[in-house]
């Protein structure tokens, strides 16, 4: 790669004209977000206006799970959605699903079909547009070409995508002004095995609902028929110039830089966080928001993140299964829109060494079909007994199955971020804050929390306060009951838990599935304990509830930690408590096979034994493959770019010194000799490191399964880091003109 290519890409990045997009208008003014929202979504309201009342009523009953979808209803819905989609330019439809690849998949089929008629003994064929109920309900992609973890043989290709009626259909822009109708779907094997992320998510949601409703019924709630997990995903990402990105093979192939040193200024001044967005970035994100509004994705927030070139978008909370769909749509839309602005979006958890990486904070709670948030403590959590029961059930699930949640966030890419003073450590713990901690402590110590309104009794010692800023023009503000803790992997933040350790690149589905499973089991345990306490009484008394809360508070107390999760003191304290500190992904994946974890998933009907083992093997295989791809990419960059640059620059130095010697000049005291000597030594070390890396690659390519993952996670990663350190040292010795790849300064600024 020539220096001119780097210069051209850098100059183009700052001189390129920006892309302008016309915002929709309503009359003579710009349309508001609410006016744009959901334009490209086939809503229930749209369907209701297109169907006869009895047909629509049957469909609604099916969505609620009260009857199966019959063929006439499916045909009616298919016809209605086809007409709606084609009025908006749709030429094709696709079953949109989520295989275990970390992204989505789609196969487009046109509405065009041929119809043959016979008239007077003459056969005539003509083209029509059609979309049948059977086409809406299911499709058949090739299941053998997606990860299956051994549940399918290579020659067994049949698999099915099935319409998920709980997630609305929508249209997206296609080529040449056309659009495509997207049908959200699940993906299963020939024998019904879950081959995707969504099937298990829907199963876990149903299990959570059943467990929560049962507990509510014991408490006397006869109105709630359904409880669902809510989810809000804060999506972090980097945006860099696409031209410069194209000159970095590591970014193109692996999503992260395998070589490179941080520039003198990066994030240490803390001036990028919440700073003014670069105009080009703001234009891209605003266009992405416009596309997402039309798709019914409720994007609420955008801002600069900590590292240079790092940003975040976050939505309003939704039902978890829809929120996962919308998060994946957000990632896909950002990817497409960034290209239109000649930018590249990076979702890797650690694309640049030395600056903060990216996460996907999953804000999780539980809500009823009556609109109640079950994790809302209200103003007096100490007497909100329903809240306390759901709180301790969540903590109990986290304590008993924290290993599952650690497995949910494990990946080759997230290993670079976890525990690196920018993300929670590999120790799973929960943060509640001063107020809730005091409430649970008071209950455990048998203090009468009901007398909170009488401070002289010293029952619960903390509460909300008002802050006076001592500025006459500023009002007093209400201070929250508790501060936040960004070092906790599972922190309570007002009326929800924030699962902060999820990686930015991964689908939020598996973390939510395993969290739903753990909490469901503990809700069942809490319900059984409450039934035992109340005995023959129609409903449990306050004392019955407090007895159960006390028991589960004491049992799960070790999982609670209020301090600095980044500190060595916490690592030491967690070890004393017996909490595992899992530092590598392969070890984390094995938590899926731990008997009590695997039994949990199987007993709840979320995954079969075969599906648990399948997912374990897929995760292990992907981990090894990810690292092998990185190692091969690094090997090629060293052999084809870095070492040739070092040898060329070394030759230039040698030629200069030889010329000085030939001219009889004092070349022995020339400063070039020092550079030549250092360059030679590091180049030799790099050659040795590269040879060792190549040897490990050859060894790894012969292995499979656990052996491959374990070798990749130990020796290969060490060899890659050693090789990188030599390359990064060479970067400081070789002239900028001779360096073959764009540097961090060009990528981040």
TrEMBL record:
GO molecular function: glutamine synthetase activity
Bias kind Polar residues: ranges: 1-15
GO BP term, example: glutamine biosynthetic process
Record Gene3D superfamilies: 1.20.120.1560, Glutamine synthetase/guanido kinase, catalytic domain
Domain GS beta-grasp as annotated: residue spans: 91-192
Pfam family, one: Gln-synt_C
GS catalytic domain location: 197-642
Chain intervals for the UniProt region annotation (Disordered): 1-21
Similarity section: Belongs to the glutamine synthetase family.
Protein name (database record): Glutamine synthetase
Organism of derivation: Rhizophlyctis rosea
């Amino acid at each position: 790669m020539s220096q001119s290519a780097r210069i051209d890409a850098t100059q183009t990045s700052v001189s390129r004209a920006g892309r302008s997009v016309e915002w929709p208008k309503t009359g003579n003014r710009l349309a508001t977000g609410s006016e744009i929202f959901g334009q490209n979504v086939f809503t229930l309201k749209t369907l209701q206006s297109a169907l006869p009342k009895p047909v629509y009523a049957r469909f609604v009953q099916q969505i609620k799970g009260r009857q199966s979808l019959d063929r006439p209803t499916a045909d009616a819905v298919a016809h209605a959605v086809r007409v709606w989609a084609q009025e908006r330019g749709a030429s094709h439809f696709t079953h949109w699903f989520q295989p275990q690849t970390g992204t989505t998949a789609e196969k487009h089929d046109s509405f065009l079909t041929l119809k043959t008629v016979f008239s007077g003994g003459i056969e005539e064929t003509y083209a029509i547009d059609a979309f049948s109920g059977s086409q809406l309900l299911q499709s058949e992609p090739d299941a053998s070409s997606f990860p299956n973890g051994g549940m399918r043989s290579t020659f067994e290709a049949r698999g099915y995508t099935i319409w998920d009626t709980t997630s609305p259909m929508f249209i997206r822009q296609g080529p040449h002004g056309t659009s495509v109708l997207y049908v959200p779907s699940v993906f299963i094997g020939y024998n019904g095995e879950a081959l995707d992320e969504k099937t298990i998510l829907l199963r876990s949601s149903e299990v959570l609902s059943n467990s929560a409703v049962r507990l509510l019924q014991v408490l006397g709630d006869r109105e709630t028929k359904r409880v669902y997990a809510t989810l809000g995903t804060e999506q972090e990402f980097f945006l860099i110039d696409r031209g410069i990105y194209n000159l970095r093979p590591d970014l193109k192939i692996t999503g992260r830089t395998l070589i490179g040193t941080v520039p003198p200024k990066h994030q240490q001044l803390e001036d990028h966080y919440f700073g003014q967005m670069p105009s080009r970035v703001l234009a891209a994100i605003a266009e992405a928001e416009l596309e997402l509004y039309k798709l019914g994705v409720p994007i609420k927030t955008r801002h600069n993140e900590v590292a240079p070139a790092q940003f975040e978008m976050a939505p309003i909370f939704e039902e978890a299964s829809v929120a996962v769909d919308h998060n994946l749509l957000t990632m896909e839309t950002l990817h497409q829109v960034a290209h239109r602005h000649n930018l590249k979006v990076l979702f890797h958890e650690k694309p640049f060494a030395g600056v903060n990486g990216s996460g996907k904070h999953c804000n999780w709670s539980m809500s009823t079909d009556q609109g109640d948030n079950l994790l809302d403590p209200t103003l007096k959590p100490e007497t909100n007994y329903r809240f306390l029961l759901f709180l301790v059930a969540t903590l109990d699930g986290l304590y008993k199955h924290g290993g599952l949640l650690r497995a949910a966030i494990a990946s080759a890419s997230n290993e670079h971020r976890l525990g690196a003073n920018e993300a929670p450590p590999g120790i799973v713990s929960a943060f509640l804050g001063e107020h809730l901690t005091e409430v649970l402590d008071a209950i455990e110590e048998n203090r009468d929390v009901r007398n909170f309104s009488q401070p002289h009794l010293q029952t619960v010692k903390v509460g909300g306060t008002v802050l006076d800023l001592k500025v006459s023009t500023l009002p007093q503000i209400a201070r929250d009951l508790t501060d936040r803790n960004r070092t906790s992997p599972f922190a309570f933040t007002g009326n929800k838990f924030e699962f902060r350790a999820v990686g930015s690149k991964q689908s939020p589905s598996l973390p939510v599935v395993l969290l739903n499973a753990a909490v469901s089991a503990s809700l069942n345990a809490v319900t059984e304990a409450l039934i035992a306490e109340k005995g023959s009484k129609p409903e449990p008394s306050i004392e019955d509830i407090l007895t159960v809360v006390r028991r589960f508070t004491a049992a799960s107390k070790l999982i609670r930690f209020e301090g600095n999760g980044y500190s060595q003191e916490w690592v030491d304290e967690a070890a004393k408590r017996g909490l595992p500190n899992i530092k590598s992904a392969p070890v984390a994946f094995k938590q899926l096979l731990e008997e009590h974890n695997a039994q949990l998933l199987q007993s709840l009907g979320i995954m079969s034994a075969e599906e648990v083992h399948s997912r374990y093997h897929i995760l292990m295989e992907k981990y090894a493959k990810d690292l092998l791809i990185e190692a091969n990419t690094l090997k090629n960059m060293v052999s084809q770019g870095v070492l040739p640059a070092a040898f060329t620059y070394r030759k230039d130095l040698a030629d200069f010194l030889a010329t000085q010697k030939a001219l009889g000049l004092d070349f022995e005291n020339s400063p070039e000799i020092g550079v030549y000597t250092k360059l030679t030594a590091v180049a030799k070390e790099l050659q040795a490191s590269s040879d060792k890396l190549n040897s490990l690659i050859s060894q790894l390519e012969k292995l499979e399964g656990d052996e491959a993952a374990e070798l990749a996670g130990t020796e290969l990663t060490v060899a890659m880091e050693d090789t990188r350190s030599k390359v990064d040292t060479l970067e400081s010795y070789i002239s900028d003109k001779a360096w073959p790849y764009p540097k961090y300064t060009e990528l981040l600024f």
